């Protein structure tokens, strides 16, 4: 039988790596095609080419030649999957690969024409092999950011200082105690052309964004034109909602809208954008939320399309899972060596915050935090939404401290629980209780309550398929709910209480990939789908839903950007390459009240220890 994962024309080393599931057929095809076009026959070069394609496919911007061997097999666990010994593969010597690339027509060009699809960049840690397109995008990002760092926007410091004092208040309406990193972040955004505001969930990123807009509006001169954007429709809708909610108390217009980055840039059929390097975006300030999900390509397009004097504020959580496409730009911008000189305006407007000693609520700025301010980078660290064990667990995971994470998980604190795979009674009880409660409200036509209750518990998995996957757990949950209710649930037919997941953006209906909702009964007895949207849920005809599925369990990737009261996370086996620190952190931070981890100590340790490694040159400088 022919295996579609194996490239039929592949030979030699490429074929062996393909059969070992390190390379896909598509990776091999690209290498073979370039070989045919350029005349390159070196097995070292073709393997490195296929691995560079693979690197991009798995989210890196380039292939680090010195870490070529740190690959994992593709996650397509067929029935017949046999374990692969990666060390036994015919890996070429690093030096031989580098030497072959240095003279390869694919890198230096050749007689066959101008084709030069690969770029080799030397660094202190060895070579980085890029597909040319990604090299150029990274170069553009670096160049635009450097040019922007050299100019500081004009700002009226008196108006700014007044605004900072009036907008950042404590619970009693007085100016908040120093240091207040939110106030510093707002000052950074006002005084730098590009600023990066990083922070975990509930650290007040959106709260700060609304105040940045208010500060800019209070500057003398015409009202600034503001662009609010996010990489996904769902994130854009949340940003808009949150800014509009805060607008009246800040003297801002309540009709500010947010849109996807694609829409802001004017995406056109064929993949071109209306706004680009020759036709700049018309805004005075642009705020991008959930920047961790922005790919290298989108960031490049955005930066190219910026007017040099437009303020850009990038907001997000660099510790979360990154974009599906290549690049981890936000994490790179936070981690890269600091550039730029100290901004004297910052010291003038928030000097008290910069110099403040430890406060009970917030620690003094560290030397490296101050240093990062030169580059316009600040991290909010004070949790404003939830304290307690969930937040502590998230911090332990983020910092890679598995012992601390396990200690918190086993502490008996009511916010966390940690159970083995065969101790499923608590999980089963939560799945059934939430389904019963949702169904009750859905049958009664209480739409708002049905939607609210559908966010009371969520079952999350690392994988979509396989024994630890969301599909398997969804079937298990349906069985539990069916047994409890005495009715067999059939997701093929709509029923009240049916939990829904949107799988593609639908701008008309204003529902977006990753949104969750529930089927409810209306007063006239008919069924409709309800989705959370601000204060009022939106109700849609079931016939208008084009891309939804029934969701009793979902992947952690899909849950990004949503929160639930209780989250149950079923960990895969410790060997799963998907089980990473970023995945665990993202899963834990989805929970508002309780997080239940189902799995072994070894799986927790493996997850905390394994980082998503996305190679890029941006991070290096
Ligand atoms: N300085 C503050 N004073 C009082 N409340 C605050 C402050 N900052 C944030 N909050 C409140 O804390 C909660 C979380 O803030 P916000 O939604 O801005 O955080 P976030 O970092 O954007 O979170 P997420 O990434 O999860 O959306 C909100 O209810 C907000 O009103």
UniProtKB/TrEMBL annotation:
Keyword DNA-binding: yes
Pfam families named among the record's database cross-references: AAA_19 (PF13245), RecD_N (PF21185), UvrD_C_2 (PF13538)
Gene Ontology MF: a single term: ATP hydrolysis activity
Reactions listed under catalytic activity: ATP + H2O = ADP + phosphate + H(+)
One Gene Ontology cellular component annotation held by this UniProt entry: exodeoxyribonuclease V complex
Domain UvrD-like helicase C-terminal: 551-598
InterPro entries given in the database record: Coronavir_polyprotein_1ab, P-loop_NTPase, RecD, RecD_N, RecD_N_sf, UvrD-like_helicase_C
Domain spans labelled RecBCD enzyme subunit RecD N-terminal: 19-121
Swiss-Prot/TrEMBL GO biological process terms: double-strand break repair via homologous recombination
EC number: 5.6.2.3
Chain positions recorded as ATP binding sites: 199-206
Top EC class for this record: isomerase
Subunit structure: Heterotrimer of RecB, RecC and RecD. All subunits contribute to DNA-binding.
Similarity remark: Belongs to the RecD family.
Function: A helicase/nuclease that prepares dsDNA breaks (DSB) for recombinational DNA repair. Binds to DSBs and unwinds DNA via a highly rapid and processive ATP-dependent bidirectional helicase activity. Unwinds dsDNA until it encounters a Chi (crossover hotspot instigator) sequence from the 3' direction. Cuts ssDNA a few nucleotides 3' to the Chi site. The properties and activities of the enzyme are changed at Chi. The Chi-altered holoenzyme produces a long 3'-ssDNA overhang and facilitates RecA-binding to the ssDNA for homologous DNA recombination and repair.
Extra information: In the RecBCD complex, RecB has a slow 3'-5' helicase, an exonuclease activity and loads RecA onto ssDNA, RecD has a fast 5'-3' helicase activity, while RecC stimulates the ATPase and processivity of the RecB helicase and contributes to recognition of the Chi site.
Name this protein carries in UniProt: RecBCD enzyme subunit RecD
Organism field: Rhodococcus spelaei
Gene field: recD
């Amino acid at each position: 039988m022919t295996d579609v994962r194996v490239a039929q024309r592949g030979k030699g080393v490429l074929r062996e790596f393909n059969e070992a599931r390190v390379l896909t057929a598509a990776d091999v095809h690209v290498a073979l095609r370039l070989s045919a076009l350029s005349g390159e026959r070196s097995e070292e070069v073709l393997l490195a080419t296929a691995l560079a394609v693979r690197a991009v496919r798995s989210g890196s911007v380039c292939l680090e030649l010195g870490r070529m061997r740190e690959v994992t097999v593709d996650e397509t666990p067929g029935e017949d999957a046999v374990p692969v010994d990666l060390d036994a593969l015919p890996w070429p010597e690093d030096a031989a690969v580098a030497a072959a690339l240095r003279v390869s027509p694919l890198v230096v060009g050749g007689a066959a024409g101008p084709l030069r699809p690969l770029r080799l960049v030397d660094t202190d840690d060895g070579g980085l092999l890029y597909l040319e397109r990604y090299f150029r995008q990274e170069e553009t990002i670096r160049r635009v950011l450097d040019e922007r760092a050299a100019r500081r926007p004009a700002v009226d410091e008196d108006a700014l200082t007044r605004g900072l004092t009036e907008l950042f208040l404590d619970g009693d309406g007085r100016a908040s105690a120093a240091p207040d990193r939110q106030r510093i972040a707002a000052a950074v955004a006002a005084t730098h052309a590009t600023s990066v505001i990083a922070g975990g969930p509930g650290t007040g990123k959106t709260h700060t964004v609304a105040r940045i807009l208010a500060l800019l509006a209070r500057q003398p001169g015409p009202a600034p034109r503001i662009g609010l954007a996010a990489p996904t429709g769902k994130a854009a809708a949340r940003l808009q909602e949150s800014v509009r909610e805060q607008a009246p108390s800040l003297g801002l217009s309540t009709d500010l809208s947010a849109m996807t980055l694609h829409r802001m840039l004017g995406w056109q059929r064929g993949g071109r954008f209306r706004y680009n390097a020759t036709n700049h975006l018309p805004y005075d300030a642009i705020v991008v939320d959930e920047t961790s999900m922005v790919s290298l390509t989108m960031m490049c397009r955005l930066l190219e399309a910026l007017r040099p004097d437009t303020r850009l504020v990038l907001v997000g959580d660099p510790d979360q899972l990154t974009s599906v496409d290549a690049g981890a730009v936000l994490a790179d911008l936070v981690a890269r060596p600091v550039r730029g000189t100290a901004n004297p305006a910052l010291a003038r407007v928030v000097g008290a915050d910069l110099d403040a000693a430890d406060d009970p609520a917030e620690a003094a700025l560290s030397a490296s935090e101050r240093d990062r301010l030169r580059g316009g980078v600040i991290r909010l660290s004070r949790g404003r939404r939830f304290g307690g064990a969930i937040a502590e667990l998230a911090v332990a995971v983020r910092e890679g401290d598995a012992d601390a994470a396990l200690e918190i998980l086993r502490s008996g604190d009511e916010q966390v629980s940690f159970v083995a795979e065969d101790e499923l009674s608590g999980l089963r009880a939560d799945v059934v209780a939430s389904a019963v409660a949702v169904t009750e409200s859905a049958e009664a036509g209480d739409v708002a309550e049905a939607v609210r209750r559908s966010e009371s518990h969520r079952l999350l998995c690392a994988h979509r398929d396989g024994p630890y996957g969301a599909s398997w757990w969804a079937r298990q949950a349906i069985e539990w709910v069916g047994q409890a209710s005495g009715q067999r649930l059939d997701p093929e037919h709509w029923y009240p209480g049916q939990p829904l997941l949107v799988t593609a953006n639908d701008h008309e209906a204003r529902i977006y990939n990753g949104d969750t909702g529930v089927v409810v009964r209306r007063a006239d007895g008919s069924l409709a789908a309800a989705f959370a949207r601000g204060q009022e849920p939106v109700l849609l005809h079931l016939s208008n839903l084009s891309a939804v599925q029934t969701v009793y369990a979902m992947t952690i990737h899909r849950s990004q950007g949503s929160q639930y009261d209780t989250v149950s996370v079923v960990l895969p086996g410790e060997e799963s390459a998907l089980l990473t620190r970023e995945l665990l952190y993202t899963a834990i931070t989805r929970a508002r009240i309780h997080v239940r981890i189902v799995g072994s100590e070894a799986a927790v340790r493996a997850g905390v220890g394994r980082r998503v490694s996305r190679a890029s040159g941006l991070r290096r400088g």
